[in-house]
């Protein structure tokens, strides 16, 4: 699940940002990307105005490269959001990655570590 929030943006802008990210994610090797309806607070979301949260549920499918492609798309999209720079909450199997007000280098390191943790999770010892 991917949560976006921007305390400085209104609900319309957050919905617009979420829509842009969804379009980009649909271009990579995933089974589906669906928006969680407004008003539903996803598990693990911080107590903020629900109208300031955009939520996407991403079904990765069985592709071995899907997670890497999703993370690459999210990182590229986030890099282009210079004016807004929304906070990002990415969760997979209970592992949470939160990015807010980080440098490009910090974002890259965090995403790389997240992918490594989940790429080796199913590997044999």
Characteristics:
3 helices, 21% strand, alpha+beta
Please tell me about this protein's structure.
The protein contains three helices and five strands. It has helices at residues 11-26, 66-80, 104-119; strands at 2-5, 32-35, 53-59, 87-92, 95-99. Strands 2-3-1-4-5 form a five-stranded antiparallel beta sheet, covered by helices on one side. A hairpin with a 2-residue loop joins strand 4 and strand 5 (95-99). Helix 1 (11-26) crosses helix 2 (66-80) and helix 2 (66-80) packs antiparallel against helix 3 (104-119).
- The order of strands across the largest sheet is 2-3-1-4-5
Largest beta-sheet details: 5 strands, antiparallel
Instruction: Report mean pLDDT, rounded to a whole number.
Output: 79
SSE string, helix = H, strand = E?
Answer: EHEEHEEH
Tell the overall outline.
globular
Oligomer: single chain
Percent helix range: 25-40%
């Amino acid at each position: 699940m991917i949560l976006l929030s921007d305390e400085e943006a209104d609900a319309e802008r957050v919905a617009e940002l979420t829509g842009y990210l969804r379009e980009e994610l649909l271009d990579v090797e995933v089974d589906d990307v669906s928006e969680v309806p407004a008003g539903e607070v996803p598990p693990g979301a911080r107590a903020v105005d629900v109208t300031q949260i955009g939520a996407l549920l991403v079904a990765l499918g069985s592709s071995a490269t899907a997670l890497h492609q999703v993370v690459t798309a999210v990182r590229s999209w986030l890099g282009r959001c210079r004016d807004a720079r929304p906070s990002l909450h990415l969760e997979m199997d209970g592992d949470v990655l939160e990015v807010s007000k980080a440098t490009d280098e910090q974002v890259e390191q965090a995403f790389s570590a997240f992918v490594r943790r989940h790429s080796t999770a199913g590997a044999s010892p």
